[in-house]
Amino acid sequence: MKRSAIGLLGKGYTISQERFEEYKKRIPLPLIQLVLTNYCSHGCWYCNQGSPYILDKSSVIDSMGESAYIAEVLKLAGQCTCEYLLFGGEPLDHPSCVNITTALLERGHTVKFQTNGTRVARLDDLAAEHPEWRNRIKFQPSFHIGDYLLKKDGITRITRYIQEYLPRMARCGFKIEMIVVLTPHALKDPQLEQLLDIVLKRVETMDVDFEYRLVEYIGEMNGLQYPAAFTAGETARINYLRQKYQRLLDGKNAEELNQVNNELLLQGMPCFNMTRLIVVDARGNLRRCKTNAGILGQTAMCASDSIAPARCPSPVCTCASMGFGSSLQPHGISLGEYLRELCEESPQPQTA
């Protein structure tokens, strides 16, 4: 029995078996995330994925050897065409990044870089030599307004980002999905919308496919745990900014955005990304979502394994914190459509 999209969280609802089978067929690309290094020169205070204090940029790539590493991460795809997300730290800081990218593209996969944008010139030659690959490469730069605005030279850093790094990314000709982390401080700053608008005006002068990914801050600040600590006013502002700046998926409307946030895929909700997501960290550990699953080169695993929706173990959506919006978004399934198909938890989708 279908229910309203609103007010179902934590009440044991899932999708029907019939709809699950349909969604399985529509999932286009499994996602394999490669942490190339834990080093990042930026050191944003809220980032848990990299640090400038990790002076050693090496990782499992160096202990295994570049060729062996490439062979093993290609095995993870199995017979599937996958999207590889290269991140860290700053992935372009690792010397093997370009060679790894080339190997993945030669095998027909797509590649996305989650980057601070400062080292994208390393890809200039690849972009010039292989224009046929441009539709299979994306930048997902992090525009750290929430961090910059707290620094004395914040506006200078933002200006440099817009005037120098953004044009460098556009010059490569790859799609840009810019992540903006909406911290409590950023939400209160009157310059926030002005800066987002400046970026859009700059992009209008470039020949590039661009969109924002506005993500709410997830983590601890001043003894409060976010996103649960966001006030009603802050949540309303987050939704307003998403409506204004993000391309909305089909089925999302203002009412849903105002009443439902990234809390949708919480503990107990069926998640598709977890079973189509493989993470290789900088030490070579394999994970599916937050679950340890083995070691690269020692554990047999591939993205073409049979799938079933898994119960999300996280109190907040990890996928949202990585800029996906929700675990459904990279699979072309709209949030509104998913909500409309919610039904009482009986029967359960069967494990494939």
From TrEMBL:
<dbReference type="GO" id="GO:0003824">
    <property type="term" value="F:catalytic activity"/>
</dbReference>
<dbReference type="GO" id="GO:0051536">
    <property type="term" value="F:iron-sulfur cluster binding"/>
</dbReference>
<dbReference type="Pfam" id="PF04055">
    <property type="entry name" value="Radical_SAM"/>
</dbReference>
<dbReference type="GO" id="GO:0046872">
    <property type="term" value="F:metal ion binding"/>
</dbReference>
<keyword id="KW-0408">Iron</keyword>
<protein>
    <recommendedName>
        <fullName>Radical SAM core domain-containing protein</fullName>
    </recommendedName>
</protein>
<keyword id="KW-0411">Iron-sulfur</keyword>
<feature type="domain" description="Radical SAM core">
    <location>
        <begin position="35"/>
        <end position="127"/>
    </location>
</feature>
<dbReference type="InterPro" id="IPR058240">
    <property type="entry name" value="rSAM_sf"/>
</dbReference>
<dbReference type="InterPro" id="IPR007197">
    <property type="entry name" value="rSAM"/>
</dbReference>
<keyword id="KW-0949">S-adenosyl-L-methionine</keyword>
<keyword id="KW-0479">Metal-binding</keyword>
<dbReference type="InterPro" id="IPR013785">
    <property type="entry name" value="Aldolase_TIM"/>
</dbReference>
